[in-house]
């Protein structure tokens, strides 16, 4: 099957990819601007540590994960080994950045005396992260 050329790209794929990248970067920039302007910025080991959470989640679980999913469509004429490596790299970065976001929340809650996992948002988010993590090990 390696000798068979890939099927042509679907019509308009480059437009869809460009729009998805533009929307992803817009959401990332908007989140960063919101944190900077209205939440005081982002810091580590400071009262601003919690603010790393939304930025890391948008970057990791939305933008980089989305890009990892698009790799096989966008680079369909490249070597399979290269696309697999890029796909794995983007998923790994997404996982690492999301983990930093989760650590930021837990440390921030610990420092402020706020209980962990007290909302539906936290339970759904943790379930999404654990399921994303399990995919990596159950392949």
Automatic annotation (TrEMBL):
Broad class of the protein's primary localization: membrane
Functional note: Transmembrane reductase that uses ascorbate as an electron donor in the cytoplasm and transfers electrons across membranes to reduce monodehydro-L-ascorbate radical in the lumen of secretory vesicles. It is therefore involved the regeneration and homeostasis within secretory vesicles of ascorbate which in turn provides reducing equivalents needed to support the activity of intravesicular enzymes.
Transmembrane segments: 12-35, 55-75, 87-106, 118-134
Record-linked PROSITE patterns: CYTOCHROME_B561
GO CC annotation terms, alphabetical: chromaffin granule membrane; lysosomal membrane
Annotated compartments: Cytoplasmic vesicle, Secretory vesicle, Chromaffin granule membrane
Catalysed reactions listed for this entry: monodehydro-L-ascorbate radical(out) + L-ascorbate(in) = monodehydro-L-ascorbate radical(in) + L-ascorbate(out)
Name recorded for this polypeptide: Transmembrane ascorbate-dependent reductase CYB561
Topology class, membrane: Multi-pass membrane protein
Domain of life: Eukaryota
Residue ranges occupied by any Cytochrome b561 domain in the UniProt entry: 19-139
Family matches, as SMART domains: B561 (SM00665)
GO MF annotation list: metal ion binding; oxidoreductase activity
Pfam families named among the record's database cross-references: Cytochrom_B561
Keywords: Cytoplasmic vesicle, Electron transport, Heme, Iron, Membrane, Metal-binding, Translocase, Transmembrane, Transmembrane helix, Transport
